[in-house]
Prior knowledge:
Elements: H1 17-20, H2 27-50, H3 56-73, H4 76-80, H5 85-105, H6 108-115, H7 126-134, H8 137-142, H9 145-160, H10 164-169, H11 172-194, H12 205-228, H13 248-262, H14 265-296, H15 299-317
Amino acid sequence: MDHSGHGTSMDLPPFTLERGLELSPEPFFLVGSLLALALYGWGVVRLVRRGDAWPVGRTVFFVLGVLTVLVAMCTKLNDYGMVMFSVHMVQHMIISMVSPILLLLGAPVTLALRALPVAGRGRTGPRELLLALLHSRYMRVVTHPVFTIPIFIASLYGLYFTPLFDTLMGSKAGHIGMMVHFLAVGLVFFWPIMGVDPGPHRPGYVMRMLELFAGMPFHAFFGIALMMASSPMVEAYENPPASLGIDVLADQSAAGGIAWAFSEIPSVLVLIALVYQWYRSDQRQARRTDRAADRDGDKELAAYNAYLASLHARGERRPAGR
């Protein structure tokens, strides 16, 4: 028997991590993930053949990001997620909060801008289209915190606490669309905060941290609401298969606990990345200052010392008692 038309067997055995991680490829995400890896690999190879360097760490982060998408969507987690709220919440948190952070640390936009060939004069190629998109009014809107924070919050409350979630869970296309939405919202939310790739909205490090913390508490509140509920909150999970041997409210409470816990994990990951970027930025600025001093004989320091000397001289010439 199928669940909600999605094609998932209703006779799944009780969930274990081993069973959840068994392969169960979802074609859309499998093809999309392989395509993403192929394009990223093409970009890296193109740079290397040209004699340009590309940080290995960025490649590792991007590959890990794609792998997290595959784990969430191309294993039995996807099958169990159709009938168990807790497993679905694991999928949601991975694909909306862990995968985007790792993918963005891979700097795919920067790689594309460096790897794509420049079109001839008067012509428009993929690189020019990407640059136009990055500088467009649309991109300024969708990466602004006035947009990103509300859409990040609405993806929780506006989806799970309305009939929309049950509608999307009723078909394979709806379920795939929902997961694509989670990934897209995560990318849009974390992109300006991470600040690895170029973009129209690039606040300072302190403002990025404030943007991060502005959205995270709502995840915690959402999780607490699920944990404290005394009745099922989502119709799609009201009648799980008897073969799973689970209690609906206990599973819902577990889903809430997962949502609450994941509000902390990405915050720590992003904070570590931001502090590291901040440190690297200060180091680069210090090196630029040192190089400038080497070129001009440290004229700025000499001028400052001369200014101090002039103040001292005026003080010595000042008559006593004045």
